[in-house]
């Protein structure tokens, strides 16, 4: 206590002793009465803490509070006492000890405070007066300008009226006056044209803008637009001529950097006979040889002259050359080394950690001694820095391709497709830890959207479309009659039909959804070592794609519209994903599973899914093959089936239990179709051969009428139904009689088994179950003979031709990019897939039809129809399905660009997969410029011989001639009309109802608000006042989701927001696997991992 008093005493005058109560006054409260302590007059200098009393600090007046008993001026603010006491502001640990009756401020000080306050008030008054004066001046200025504008307008109106009267008196008009005024040949004093008109640039531009506004007539705007167009054409033409005159783009004007060297090489490699007789093409080749020699010498002079060698090495990589070829050509100076092409720098280079003074510890005496020799070696290693190796050409190309893909993804207008890739890692000799293995991965590609606008891809529009979409009805699945394709006759009838090729192209049906011919940019992504066959695998693949494209789902700008300038609350855009049926089903299952558990981005609510049309085409061909294959060993008894045609062509046998590759099945279906159409053409025209047909038929109209007759007479499902009705009653009676007889036999066998069991003293329970024994099963009855009514062979042939024409129609629509015709075929497939028994693909067709009809907006629908077909070549009739593009890329990765040995790894595939498209284009360009003309694709096989063989078979066996009573073998059933069967299943079965039920269930799940989003909304919302105890809380009507436990349902009223949310808080359960048919597989064991 004494030390504290001594510390306070050194800041006080020697005449003022400390107060007795100062030891207990440690709370830092400053009095506001007249007895304010003397500390207000003491100022402690921070530079000299031992200094005596200093003048009062200038800013202490605001901290001192009211002083003495002087009246406070009304203009002075009420002073505030600092929290903790004024001694804390001055930096003192404790309040000083002062006399209780000491007066703080003198009258002179109070007078000075009042004067300063008055000055501040006067300054504020003057500032307000200046502002008011400025506003008055501005208002007067605006009023003066308005008056001056009115006076000028009045004056100019008078001048215009006078000018109009003067010109009218002489028969002139305003155009004549302006023509005279702005004629360049006319000169005025003081350059009046420039000073009075053109010098006022803003006014001149305003006049030009007047003429282009809607306030003038369309004729005036057209005149101005025509003049502006002609002016731009002249300007651009002059600029083009100036570029041509500069010769900057002409190859013949390029300077030769080594003219003497090339002269020497020309003299060394050209004989006099060659200079006299050699053609220009051979001279071009000789110059190429000389240039290659010079490039090789320059590479020997400096390693930096390796640009051409890098191109040659990349070309070898693009053609799948082996490593030894790189070594051989590299030794000749033609290419670079293999390692220089594929070298990939390590991600993290470990630098050796060397100490400045390494210490050696002697273990015997635990002493430390320095080793001079080791120090020298360590210093030498530090000085010799390893030369940094530049990355390989392939690695840099891969990084450039990935960077380009990220730039495309940053726009948000792109579509993603991915598919699995199965790699077989083989070894020459298997040892422990090294054996043959198949690993599954995923390859993905993105494509920029064609004719897409950001405002058509908003997530809110997709959500509203799903919420408001009506159920799918049978009226939405309208079946259109397939047309007999004249292209089959023109393309496969022979050379004589080519004269109608141009007319046929003009008469082809075209819808308004045809895609404009353009080239699609392909941007493959690195291969991922992730198996996408499961639901969890699809999550990992999408996460890998986001990581590669630098798209973070946790950031607020994820998939948001790019605006200029960027804003945080930009609307989110949709992500379009395409793939095969299983891939789309897995992602739809993720939307169902994660709804209500994850936010919108991680629940994939903002993603649109496109079907893989190529996989749908594969399903159609395989279903057609199974339905119309026929009995393989029936021979001439079943001449209309595909099995008999396969036997006639002497092809490898086909077993339906193990379907052949898609190309084999498609070739058989198409060649059978071509032969049937040409055979039916001879039937409807009553000609014996195609040559006779060409001699007699010379008009396109006649050919078109014959094509229509082919469809009406030989691909008519209604006529087949009429033929069925002739024998259906009799067949039903025979089947009923057979079932009744079989029932009697079964009952007699059952009684005999009971009697035998009683004789053997069997138990009663065993006697009751004796009907399940194998001995009681009656033998299967032999198949009944078919009713000899109508012609079964003719019926099957008609249905086969109808289904083949539908498949051909889809292929032609894809080739020309007509999305409207594709949609029509998809509606037919929705029925035929149900008839084939392929319910998964039928569900996918219903899903896409429902989206196109009710869910997607018009803008999004156009984007889908314009981008589910791609054109990588940019040529006419070269469109292919989006999933087929990914299949082609996977093929090139597996067959051409795979490595051998230890280099065959996923790291290698990740580096080479983004370069696949670039390498293929480079190989094609090099082959066109320097190679021989071998073409870019294989030639189509000549099917004329195959078609003639099948046409002869159809004519000999009279397949398309109706013969009453012709039947099939008893064990071969007639072919069903899969379209009618599927349509009946949709109308009367449960397929359509199950789809609508599932869609409604998934839509209700989308309404669930995740707990995380609900908490964030409650934290940012305004506080809700608690209800009074006498009144119940006001609860709004909320549409809650039914909960298994109603006691846990609680409705919460949230504050008003742009999107009203009525939350339902209840326990969250994962959906049952049986409730989600989108998954198509029983793999919901990992749902807990997905939603965690």
Overview of this protein structure:
The chain has 1092 residues and is mainly alpha-helical. Among the domains are: 122-198, no CATH class; 201-246; 619-816 and 944-976, no CATH class; 1017-1091, no CATH class. Helix content is 51%, strand content 5%. The chain contains 39 helices and eleven strands. A hairpin with a 4-residue loop joins strand 1 (360-362) and strand 2. The chain is extended.
Quaternary state reads single chain
Structural class: mainly alpha
Report the radius of gyration as a whole number of Å. Answer: 46 Å
SS summary, helix count: 39
Beta percentage is under 5%
Q: Main β-sheet, in a few words? A: 5 strands, mixed
Task: List the uncertain runs.
Answer: 1-90, 348-371, 480-485, 766-776, 1022-1092
Rounded mean pLDDT is 75
The best one-word shape is extended
Tell me the helix content. 40-55%
Biggest sheet, spatial arrangement of strands: 5-4-3-6-7
Number of distinct beta strands:
11
Give the termini separation.
Answer: 64 Å
Please provide a brief summary of the model.
This protein is mostly helical and 1092 residues long. Residues 1-10 have a biased composition (Basic and acidic residues). This is DUF6589 domain-containing protein.
Task: Tell me the layout of helices and strands.
Layout: H1 2-9, H2 86-89, H3 107-170, H4 174-181, H5 192-198, H6 201-211, H7 218-246, H8 259-269, H9 272-277, H10 280-301, H11 307-318, H12 323-331, H13 338-342, E1 360-362, E2 367-369, H14 372-383, H15 393-410, E3 414-425, E4 437-448, H16 459-468, H17 486-492, H18 501-507, E5 523-524, H19 535-548, E6 575-579, H20 581-594, E7 607-611, H21 613-627, H22 642-648, H23 662-685, H24 690-696, H25 700-714, H26 717-759, H27 764-768, H28 792-816, H29 819-836, H30 839-855, H31 858-867, E8 869-870, E9 880-881, H32 882-895, H33 906-912, H34 916-930, H35 944-957, H36 978-988, H37 991-1006, H38 1011-1020, E10 1050-1052, E11 1063-1065, H39 1087-1091
Parallel strand pairs: 3-6, 6-7
Antiparallel strand pairs: 1-2, 3-4, 4-5, 8-9, 10-11
Helix pairs in contact: 8-10, 11-34, 21-23, 21-28, 21-29, 23-25, 23-28, 23-35, 28-29, 29-30, 29-36
């Amino acid at each position: 206590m004494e030390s504290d008093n001594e510390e306070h005493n050194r800041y006080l005058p020697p005449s003022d002793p400390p107060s007795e109560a100062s030891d207990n006054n440690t709370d830092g409260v400053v009095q506001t009465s007249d007895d304010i302590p003397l500390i207000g007059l003491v100022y402690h200098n921070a530079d000299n803490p031992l200094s005596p009393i200093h003048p009062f600090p200038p800013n202490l007046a605001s901290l001192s509070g009211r002083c003495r008993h002087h009246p406070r001026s009304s203009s002075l603010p009420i002073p505030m006492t600092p929290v903790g006491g004024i001694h804390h502001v001055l930096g003192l640990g404790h309040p000083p000890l002062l006399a209780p009756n000491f007066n703080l401020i003198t009258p002179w000080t109070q007078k000075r405070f009042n004067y300063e306050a008055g000055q501040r008030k006067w300054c504020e008054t003057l500032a307000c007066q200046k502002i008011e004066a400025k506003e008055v001046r501005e208002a007067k200025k605006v009023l003066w300008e308005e008056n001056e504008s009115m006076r000028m307008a009045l004056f100019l109106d008078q001048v215009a009226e006078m000018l109009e009267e003067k010109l009218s008196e002489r028969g002139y008009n305003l155009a004549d006056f302006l023509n005279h005024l702005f004629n360049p040949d006319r000169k005025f004093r003081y350059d009046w044209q420039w000073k009075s008109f053109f010098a006022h640039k803003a006014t001149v531009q305003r006049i030009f803008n007047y003429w282009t506004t809607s306030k003038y007539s369309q004729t005036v705007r057209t005149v101005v637009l025509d003049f502006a167009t002609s002016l731009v054409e002249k300007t651009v033409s002059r600029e083009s001529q100036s570029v041509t005159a500069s010769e900057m783009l002409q190859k013949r004007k390029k300077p030769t950097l080594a003219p003497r060297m090339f002269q020497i090489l020309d003299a060394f490699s050209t004989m006099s006979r060659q200079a006299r007789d050699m053609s220009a093409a051979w001279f071009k080749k000789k110059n190429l040889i000389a240039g290659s020699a010079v490039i090789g010498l320059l590479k020997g002079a400096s390693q930096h002259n390796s640009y051409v060698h890098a191109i040659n090495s990349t070309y070898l990589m693009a053609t799948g050359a082996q490593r030894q070829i790189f070594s051989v050509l590299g030794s000749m100076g033609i290419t670079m080394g293999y390692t220089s092409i594929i070298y990939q720098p390590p991600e993290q280079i470990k630098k050796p950690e060397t100490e400045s003074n390494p210490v050696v510890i002697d273990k015997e005496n635990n002493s430390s001694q320095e080793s001079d020799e080791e120090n020298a070696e360590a210093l030498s290693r530090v000085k010799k820095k390893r030369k940094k190796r530049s990355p390989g050409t392939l690695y840099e190309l891969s990084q450039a391709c990935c960077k380009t893909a990220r730039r495309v993804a940053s726009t948000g207008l792109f579509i993603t497709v991915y598919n699995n890739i199965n790699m077989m890692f083989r070894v020459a000799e298997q040892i422990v830890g090294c054996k043959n293995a198949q690993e599954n991965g995923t390859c993905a590609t993105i494509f920029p959207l064609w004719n897409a606008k950001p405002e058509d891809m908003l997530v809110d529009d997709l959500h509203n479309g799903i919420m408001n979409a009506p159920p799918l009805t049978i009226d939405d699945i309208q079946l259109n009659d397939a047309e007999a394709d004249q292209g089959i006759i023109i393309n496969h009838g022979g050379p004589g039909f080519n004269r109608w090729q141009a007319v046929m192209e003009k008469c082809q049906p075209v819808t308004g959804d045809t895609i404009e011919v353009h080239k699609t940019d392909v941007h493959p992504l690195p291969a991922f070592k992730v198996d996408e066959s499961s639901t969890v695998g699809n999550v990992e693949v999408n996460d890998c794609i986001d990581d590669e494209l630098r798209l973070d789902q946790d950031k607020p700008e994820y998939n948001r519209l790019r605006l200029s300038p960027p804003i945080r609350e930009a609307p989110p855009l949709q992500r379009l994903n395409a793939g095969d049926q299983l891939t789309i089903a897995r992602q739809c299952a993720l939307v169902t599973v994660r709804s209500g558990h994850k936010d919108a981005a991680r629940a994939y609510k903002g993603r649109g899914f496109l079907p893989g049309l190529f996989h749908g085409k594969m399903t159609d061909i395989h279903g057609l093959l199974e339905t119309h294959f026929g009995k393989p060993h029936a021979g001439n008894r079943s001449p209309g089936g595909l099995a008999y045609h396969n036997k006639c062509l002497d092809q490898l046998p086909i077993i339906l239990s193990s379907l052949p590759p898609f190309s084999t099945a498609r070739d058989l279906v198409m060649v059978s179709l071509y032969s049937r159409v040409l055979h039916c053409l001879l039937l409807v025209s009553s000609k014996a051969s195609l040559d006779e047909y060409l001699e007699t038929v010379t008009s396109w109209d006649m050919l078109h009428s014959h094509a229509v007759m082919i469809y009406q007479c030989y691909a008519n499902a209604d006529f087949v139904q009429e033929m069925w009705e002739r024998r259906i009653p009799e067949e039903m009676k025979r089947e009923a009689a057979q079932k009744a007889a079989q029932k009697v036999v079964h009952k007699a066998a059952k009684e005999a088994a009971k009697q035998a069991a009683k004789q053997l003293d069997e138990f009663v329970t065993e006697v009751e179950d004796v009907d399940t024994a194998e001995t009681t099963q009656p033998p299967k009855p032999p198949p009944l003979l078919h009713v000899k009514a109508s012609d079964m062979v003719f019926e099957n042939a008609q249905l086969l031709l109808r289904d083949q024409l539908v498949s051909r129609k889809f292929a032609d629509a894809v080739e020309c990019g007509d999305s409207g015709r594709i949609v029509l075929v998809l509606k037919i497939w929705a029925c035929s897939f149900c008839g084939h028994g392929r319910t998964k693909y039928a569900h996918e067709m219903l899903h896409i039809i429902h989206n196109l009809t009710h869910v997607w907006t018009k803008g999004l629908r156009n984007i889908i129809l314009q981008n589910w077909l791609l054109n990588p070549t940019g040529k006419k009739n070269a469109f292919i399905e989006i999933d087929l593009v990914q299949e082609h890329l996977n093929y090139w990765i597996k067959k051409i660009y795979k490595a051998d040995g230890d280099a065959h790894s996923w790291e290698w595939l990740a580096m080479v997969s983004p370069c696949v498209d670039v390498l293929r284009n480079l190989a094609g360009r090099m082959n066109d410029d320097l190679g021989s003309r071998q073409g870019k694709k294989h030639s189509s096989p000549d099917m004329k011989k195959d078609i003639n063989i099948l046409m002869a078979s159809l004519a000999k066996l009279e397949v398309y001639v109706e013969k009453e009573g012709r039947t099939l073998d008893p064990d071969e059933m007639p072919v069903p009309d899969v379209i009618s069967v599927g349509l009946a299943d949709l109308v009367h079965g449960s397929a359509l109802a199950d789809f609508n039920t599932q869609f409604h269930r998934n839509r209700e799940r989308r309404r669930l608000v995740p707990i995380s989003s609900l908490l964030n909304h409650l934290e940012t919302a305004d506080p809700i006042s608690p209800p009074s105890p006498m009144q119940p809380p006001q609860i709004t009507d909320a549409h809650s989701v039914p909960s298994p436990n109603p006691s846990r349902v609680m409705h919460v009223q949230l504050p008003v927001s742009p999107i009203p949310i009525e939350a339902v808080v209840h326990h969250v359960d994962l959906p049952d696997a049986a409730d989600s048919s989108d998954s198509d597989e029983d793999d919901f064991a990992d749902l807990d991992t997905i939603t965690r």
